[in-house]
């Protein structure tokens, strides 16, 4: 019985391009997620796992595309192998075969590579934190979060209105913001 050749592709954001992953491989079906790999609760990954059948081969660009921590990666690999599906990690040139799923060498390689991938993600986060801290020290860091709904002048005026007995709903309506925005503003005062 010959199975299908299935691809799984993942990038972290919708802006990222997936073209380089599994480029040139002839696949019967491809599942593509554009979300973080922090969790295994990814919609297309779950569809992929449900789609896999005995004899299929799952192609993944690299180990970190399937799982970003050792526990999740090992659980996913074991779940896939238990379905009698082979897994090929193209970048690492590694194939995990269900007939050898208990092979100590195969599991050692997987553990080492997943530990390295997890370490790499941790190092990236640490460098990012260090970069932010240095930028903050030289006043070059700007939090790119949502801009305040009210200017400083509007916030001060809203506080005065409340002190003068104007209701929160009326203040919110005046500035076209939610009541929660006004409550949060007043609580911060």
Question: Can I get a quick summary?
Answer:
The chain has 2 domains: 5-121, Rossmann fold, CATH 3.40.50.1390; 152-188, Arc Repressor Mutant, subunit A (Orthogonal Bundle). The protein has 7 helices and 5 strands.
What would you say this structure looks like, in words?
The chain has 189 residues and is α/β, with parallel strands linked by helices. It has two domains: 5-121, Resolvase, N-terminal catalytic domain (Rossmann fold, 3-Layer(aba) Sandwich); 152-188, Arc Repressor Mutant, subunit A. Helices cover 48% and strands 13% of the residues. It has seven helices and five strands, in the order ββαβααββαααα. A five-stranded mixed sheet has the order 2-1-3-4-5. Helix 6 (168-175) packs across helix 7. The longest helix is centred in the middle third of the chain and has 34 residues, at 104-137. It is elongated and about 75 Å long. The termini are far apart. The mean pLDDT is 86.
């Amino acid at each position: 019985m010959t199975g299908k050749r299935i691809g799984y592709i993942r990038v972290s954001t919708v802006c990222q391009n997936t073209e380089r992953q599994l480029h040139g491989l002839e696949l019967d079906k491809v599942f593509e997620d554009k979300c973080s790999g922090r969790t295994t609760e990814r919609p297309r990954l779950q569809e992929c796992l449900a789609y896999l059948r005995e004899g299929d081969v799952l192609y993944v660009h690299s180990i970190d595309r399937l799982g970003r921590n050792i526990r999740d990666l090992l659980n996913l690999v074991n779940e896939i192998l238990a379905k009698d599906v082979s897994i090929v990690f193209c970048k690492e040139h590694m194939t995990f075969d269900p007939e050898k799923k208990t092979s100590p060498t195969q599991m050692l390689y997987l553990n080492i590579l997943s530990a390295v991938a997890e370490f790499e993600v941790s190092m990236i986060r640490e460098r990012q934190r260090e970069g932010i801290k240095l930028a903050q020290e030289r006043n070059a860091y700007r939090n790119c979060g949502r801009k305040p709904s009210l200017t400083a002048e509007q916030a001060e005026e809203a506080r005065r209105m409340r002190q003068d007995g104007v209701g929160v709903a009326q203040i919110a309506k005046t500035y076209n913001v939610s009541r929660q925005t006004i409550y949060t503003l007043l609580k911060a005062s």
